[in-house]
Design goal:
255 residues; single chain; 6-stranded mixed sheet; alpha/beta; globular
Length: 255
């Protein structure tokens, strides 16, 4: 079942084309790894899909609701009421955590539940405690972000995103700000979510993770999707020379 569709998406910053005719779809329960060199448009794509950036052209449909369509000759976004519904279907985990520093871990996870989703506080608190146990941080409920390691902060950020019960969860290089020894604990949480068939798109430079966890791998370069396929195809027998050249740098890591 298709949960998200992107057609001919184009994004321009200061006359520079960042995303150029990008089309893709995500099916329910699918894990997509988005790989490619820095500056290839991966993070911008996620920001466009989660309404953090507006597009210059294209069409985006989320769970049957049209977010934006350029059929009239320019991008026309849905009314705010529809966009609010769409936002609640999408979760985002940033590379730098983006936790509220003046809120405890519990407050960070309950805030949006109560004030955005309208969930009663006691229910939001119960959800938060359950999710903290899920990510192995039930003992950090009263801690503040400055008291957490990078890996713990990212796991709290994942719990916060999950608390809103998104239909698609996006990760923008979730381990890039972490020391190598902390990367594993975050990747384990994402692996566990994949095993539970959470629909996810993960921008990552962790090639072994992409190979082992993703159902499909998309390689981007210069704002375009160069190649897409199963991990076996992309890592084992890529068809495009640019994909081959990029992956050769990582062969010792994932091979």
């Amino acid at each position: 079942m298709e949960i998200l569709r992107v057609e001919n998406l184009r994004k321009i910053f200061d006359r520079e084309v960042i995303l150029d005719d990008v089309s893709l779809e995500i099916n329910k329960g699918e894990v997509i790894a988005l790989i490619g060199p820095s500056g290839s448009g991966k993070s911008t794509l996620l920001r466009c899909l989660t309404l953090l950036e507006k597009i210059n052209w294209g069409k985006i449909i989320v769970a049957g609701d049209t977010m934006v369509d350029s059929a009239t000759g320019k991008p026309c976004y849905a009314p705010e009421q529809t966009l609010r519904i769409i936002r609640l279907k999408l979760g985002m985990v940033f590379q730098n955590f983006n936790l509220f520093p003046h809120f405890s871990v519990l407050q960070n996870i309950t805030e949006a539940q109560v004030h955005v989703a309208g969930i009663p506080y006691e229910t939001a608190k119960a959800n938060a405690l359950q999710l903290l146990k899920k990510v192995g941080l039930e003992d950090k409920v009263d801690a503040y972000p400055y008291q957490l390691s990078g890996g713990q902060s990212q796991r709290v950020a994942i719990a916060r995103a999950l608390a809103m019960k998104p239909e698609v969860l996006f990760f923008d290089e979730p381990t890039s700000a972490l020391d190598p020894e902390l990367t594993g604990e975050v990747l384990k949480v994402i692996r566990d979510l994949a095993a539970e068939h959470m629909t996810m798109m993960v921008v990552t430079h962790e090639m072994a993770f992409a190979r082992d966890v993703a159902d499909r791998v998309i390689f981007m370069d210069n704002g375009r999707i160069v190649e897409s396929g199963t991990p076996e195809k992309i890592f084992g027998n890529p068809a495009n020379e640019r994909t081959k050249a990029f992956l050769q740098r990582f062969s010792d890591t994932y091979g």
